[in-house]
Amino acid sequence: MHDTVWFEIQGIPSVSIASEEFVSAAQAQAQALGMDARRCFVRHPIQDRTDEEMRALADEVVDQVVSALTHS
Q1: Three-class SS of residue 37?
Q2: 59 Cα distance to chain centroid
Q3: Measured between alpha carbons, how far is residue 60 from residues 16, 42, 71 in Å?
Q4: Which phi and psi (to 5°) does residue 42 adopt?
Q5: What's the confidence (pLDDT) of residue 59?
Q6: Alpha-carbon gap, residue 72 to 67, rounded angstroms
Q7: Does 72 score more than 70 pLDDT?
Q8: Of 14, 16, 46, 52, which sits 20 to 30 A from 35 (CA to CA)?
Q9: Which residues pair with residue 19 across a beta bridge?
Q10: Do 41 and 23 contact (CB within 8 A), yes or no?
Q11: Strand ranges for the chain from DSSP E
Q12: Is the dihedral of CA 44, 47, 53, 56 positive or negative?
């Protein structure tokens, strides 16, 4: 969340991507940082996923990420 806010302050459109486990934490961080930063979430867990599984997770959210970057 911190990086996303920093990039946004610099004028660089950004989206945080995390696993669904961190929805509440991301909301709390966005509020604490004073910016409703854009974010998307993938299925949890991710730590033990293979490269192929990670690509599949990315494929599931790519449209959400593009939408978040291109719509205010």
Answers
A1: coil
A2: 14
A3: 15, 8, 19
A4: -105, 165
A5: 97
A6: 9
A7: no
A8: 46
A9: 42
A10: yes
A11: 16-19, 39-42
A12: positive
For 39, the token pair is 């974010």
CA 51 to chain CA centroid, nearest Å: 19
Q: Which residues pair with 41 in a beta bridge?
A: 18
Residue whose structure tokens are 């690509």: 55
> Whole-angstrom distance between the N-terminal and C-terminal Cα of the chain?
17
Q: Domain segments of the chain: what residues?
A: 2-70
**Structure token pair of residue 5:** 């806010």
Mean pLDDT, range 14-43, rounded to an integer: 94
Task: Quote the pTM value.
Answer: 0.86
* Residue 8 near residue 14 (C-beta atoms within 8 A): yes
Kindly state the tokens that stand for 31: 């509020």
DSSP state of 60: H
